[in-house]
Predict the structure.
Amino acid sequence: HPSILTVLDYGGGGSDWDAPGFEPTTGQLAKQFFDIQNVTTFEPARGQLEKQDADCVVCMDVLEHIFISDIPIVVDELFSLAKKLLVINVAC
């Protein structure tokens, strides 16, 4: 969607939105494929501690690693950081 220009990858692990070949037929980067201008990754295990509001917050395979008593706090934070769209995937 053209109004989604910034992404916060919350708990992004080793993801790289600038890695070549995200889209195999064109070789586009993920940022190019989704037409994103800026991606910030929050990953405390890798020392990436910056969290900032973004048009879209992506949280893939993170919540299953959070203590159950902390889930409401983290989900509230995810909603507060997302200006337009929140995408969550829980693997379990």
